[in-house]
């Protein structure tokens, strides 16, 4: 009873109440102004028309523009204010300024021979696709593209967790940890014990978690508790009692780096459902990969790019030399292998480029034979939707797997709203019948793949900080394909008859949800 009361009256609950009051207050002010101050209403109406024009001429897809224009038409003043507050994916000028020296430092680091960025060695004529993706990610994600990297694929969170603990125990210099969700329980407790011990041994241990992602799973201001253990820590984008556009920019990344030599990423967060210790929505199917070698530098630099938003140490902002792959290789050993390339890229509001969306699009455009996708949500903008349909029309095998048991029922109906038009063009859609599939994978022509945190929805593609690993002609692609084949065995194919047999009420609901897909 005491715990329930403490949650009800927690600081986070109070913050949400204040935010709700601000929104309600703005709406009431709008009504009041409409009734009693016609001249104010006229000025605000003109402002709403200007906002509508801004929306109409913005460089966004129609699927993004239409719901905002509809809302502005129905509630012009209120919706215009909401658009200004919640629609922009970009950071404030102040926050963007913090990134400028970081981007400059990363460009210098990736151009440094010691970073071992392999992009400058790729023969454009002999391997045009490697050059194409390498150039894009090198120029727009500051991530570089690397060889000399051993990649291990984990088809379940349980397998990944065992290896994560093993590598954490072997850490000698530093541990960087950045996750969207951290939840108290078996998984976090075991990791925390290692982190505390390593911090006590003098290692540089840093932890970042998203304040909203961990809203109901960690105590308020938990980073202060971690600091007492000698762990450097921040809650990313803390929730505050003020309506702020940056509240949309959640840190959805999943990164673990050990000594600049070994790193993990993928779909798993740090919570017990990801390792089968807690049952939610049937079987929770997820994955992760481990990088050992030069390719880890991409994830190291992504973590540091987030860290510097909070750090006050100038050296951390402008100097990445202590984290280059060559730093501890004499001690830890060097991975020497030439089977393909890997690039750990970031996507988010710190740039004007939607890298995550463009990697997906470029993979679709480059496909010659097959496109295999697993995704927890299927909320497509026009460009990605048309690209998938056109690929299927052109004879490319396009297979998409979504959950059969949803974590969000409304989003599930929205996902199913895309089935008919995709199936009609030849796309094969399966639902993972054992439960909820959370992994985000694109596998193209059995030699190109990307694994990471980027969902197929508007928030993930255009608002959140995300990360992924582009993998090219590496042996690990065979393991990714085996996992996909195993998933299909446990999934059911969705037919036209199944889609057409849905109740009329469901069909109507799904079409209404489609109108507002970009806002969900």
Question: What does this protein look like?
Answer:
This protein is α/β, with parallel strands linked by helices and 520 residues long. It has three domains: 2-86, no CATH class; 93-339, Endonuclease, Chain A; 355-519, Endonuclease Chain A (Endonuclease, Chain A). It is 46% helix and 17% strand. The protein is built from 21 helices and 17 strands. Strands 9-16-15-14-10-11-12-17 form an eight-stranded mixed beta sheet, sandwiched between helices. The protein has a seven-stranded mixed beta sheet with strand order 1-8-6-5-2-3-4, with helices on both faces. The protein has a two-stranded parallel ribbon with strand order 7-13. It starts with a helix and ends in a 5-residue tail after the last helix.
Q: How many helices?
A: 21
Specify Rg, calculated over alpha carbons. Answer: 23 Å
Strand arrangement in the largest pleated sheet: 9-16-15-14-10-11-12-17
From the 3D coordinates, which CATH architecture of the largest domain would you assign? 2-Layer Sandwich
% residues in beta strands: 15-25%
Query: Could you name the CATH homologous superfamily of the largest domain?
Result: Endonuclease Chain A
The tally of domains stands at 3
Structural class: alpha/beta
Q: How many strand segments?
A: 17
Labels describing this entry:
Endonuclease, Chain A; alpha/beta; 520 residues; 7-stranded mixed sheet; single chain; 8-stranded mixed sheet
